[in-house]
Design a protein that fits this description.
This protein is α/β, with parallel strands linked by helices and 504 residues long. Helix content is 33%, strand content 24%. It has two domains: 288 residues, no CATH class; 177 residues, Alpha-Beta Barrel (fumarase), CATH 3.20.130.10. The strands form five sheets. It has a five-stranded mixed beta barrel. The longest helix is centred in the first third of the chain and has 20 residues.
Length: 504
């Protein structure tokens, strides 16, 4: 009988979450590199290059791949013959491991979990509790899989119950475009088929732990219905032309994973959960010999890529930019931002909206007249950093506040990730403003462009406080110009037609 000691288990969980915060799975790096090499869309190719460069920087610097260091998800398969030497129960041991990982002073991770989710939504301040799934199995070992699941991708999860004769592929092809780009493609689609509602969702999440092997499957051919579905969905989703970050291109998904389970004769439950460009997971086994031995990948697994601004890249001084200047910017144009940039996310926008509704002045230092706002909740800095990884958050969550911000504060520009809704695009056009897109999944790279950071309002909101960044050559793309043209509409449409011509 194997004995698992409390400290070995806790430290293994902590080490694993630290590990996945800065090491992409090697299979993901290889698949993304292959996609980058064959990509023909300049915008998508540049986005993938930024993700790959960011990934290597994080592997070298041991800092988070994404500022959203995720909800801690843990799958445990516990052998029936395992004995525990512990004062804590398994749930408490997992949470202690998560707590250690996320509060590790040399690589601080962001606390994103909030309690009382339908009420006060107070941050738990250590990223617990973890999402734990346990299964008792044969044997005398404990198999552990950990994943850090960011909100941008998790929020795009889909579920339906089809009629038994329903078409799963058609449902997926309707669901993926509706997800937008907030899940930060290119990534992986996890699909669960069968069981009941909760079982299908769990199957989809668990499928994302499988290694990328779609190209091996294409070479040998499918052996069963699930493998046929994987190939069909992979080809047809990529033919949609959504591309990296939704900019239009050849690769939207790097793999499609499917797990199934017997279901009721009257039902066909189907769940869809995407994994983003910050795909983070790790599996290990504890056999009683001590904590997990996690071997770092070789840096040789990453491609050598140098990011260089093109001769057409526009450099913009945020301290002097005018509405007349931004009116000349065109969708798809690459820009390097320098100067002062205010930040704000959901909670800050709600505070601003409430203050303005009450007729109150905004706090000192919060003046948006002819300025830009960056949708970000950064990781805390370590060492001599001015700020930790600080990639963009999903802009559509701020859509409900955008017309108010443009109309009442003098704001002229926004920076975030993914598309904007049509009502927001109409407001941007009406106010002659602009929306710029930074690459999701390149948080450490973006942070290197931030030269200073200070909190100017709502410090009690933690990572959601309003900050003022001073940035130098921060790379962004014009996503919605002052005429209301959106690259997230024109880019995929263009590449879908091109891919269709190639296929036909």
């Amino acid at each position: 009988m194997t004995t698992i000691r409390q400290e070995d288990f806790i430290q293994s969980i902590a080490d694993a979450f630290q590990y996945i915060s800065y090491y992409h799975p090697v299979d993901y790096i290889k698949a993304l590199t292959a996609a980058w090499e064959r990509e023909q869309s300049p915008a998508a190719k540049d986005a993938m290059a930024q993700i790959l460069v960011n990934s290597r920087m994080c592997a070298e610097g041991h800092r988070p791949i994404c500022q959203d260091t995720g909800a801690a998800v843990v799958f445990l398969k516990i052998g029936m013959d395992v004995r525990w030497e512990s004062e804590l129960n398994i749930t408490d041991m997992v949470n202690e491991g998560v707590r250690r990982a996320y509060t590790q002073p040399d690589n601080k991770l962001r606390f994103s979990m909030v309690s009382d989710p339908a009420g006060a939504r107070k941050n738990t301040c250590d990223n617990t509790p973890a999402i734990i799934n346990m299964e008792l199995v044969d044997g005398d070992k404990v198999e552990v899989a950990v994943a850090a699941k960011g909100g941008g991708s998790e929020n795009k999860s889909k579920f339906t119950v089809l009629n038994p004769s329903g078409n799963i592929v058609d449902w997926v092809l309707d669901a993926v475009p509706a997800m937008g780009a907030g899940w930060c493609p290119p990534g992986i689609l996890g699909i669960g088929i069968g069981g009941t509602a909760e079982k299908a969702m769990l199957l989809a999440k668990e499928s994302l732990l499988d290694h990328i092997d779609i190209h091996e499957l294409k070479e040998r051919g499918p052996k069963n219905r699930v493998e046929e579905l994987r190939l069909e969905i992979f080809e047809k989703v990529n033919a949609l032309g959504i591309g990296a970050q939704g900019l239009g291109g050849l690769t939207t998904v790097l793999d499609v994973k499917i797990k199934d389970f017997p279901t009721h004769a009257a039902s066909l439950p189907v769940a869809l959960i995407p994994n983003c460009a910050a795909t983070r997971h790790l599996e290990f086994t504890l056999d009683g010999s001590g904590p997990a031995d996690l071997t770092p990948p070789s840096l040789d697994e990453w491609p050598e890529i140098t990011l260089e601004a093109s001769k057409n890249t526009r450099r913009v001084n945020l301290d002097s930019v005018t509405p007349e200047e931004i009116a000349t910017w065109k969708t798809g144009e690459q820009i390097l931002l320098s100067g002062k940039l205010l930040t704000g996310r959901d909670a800050a926008h709600k505070r601003i909206a409430d203050m303005l509704a009450r007729g109150e002045s905004l706090p000192d230092g919060v003046d948006f007249k002819n300025r830009f706002i960056y949708y970000v909740g950064p990781v805390d800095p370590v060492g001599n950093e001015v700020v930790g990884p600080a990639g963009p958050t999903t802009a559509t969550r701020m859509d409900k506040f955008t017309d108010m911000m443009l109309d009442q504060t003098g704001l002229i520009g926004m920076v975030g990730k993914a598309e904007r809704g049509q009502a927001t695009i109409d407001s941007i056009k009406a106010h002659r403003a602009v929306y710029l897109m930074a690459v999701g999944g390149a948080a450490y790279l973006v942070a290197k462009a931030i030269r200073s950071s200070r909190i100017v309002a709502f410090e009690e909101l933690g990572m959601e406080a309003i900050r003022e960044f001073v940035v130098e050559d921060m790379p962004v793309t014009v996503a919605v110009d002052s005429q209301g043209e959106s690259i997230h509409q024109t880019g995929p449409a263009k590449w879908k037609a091109m891919i269709g011509d190639i296929i036909s």
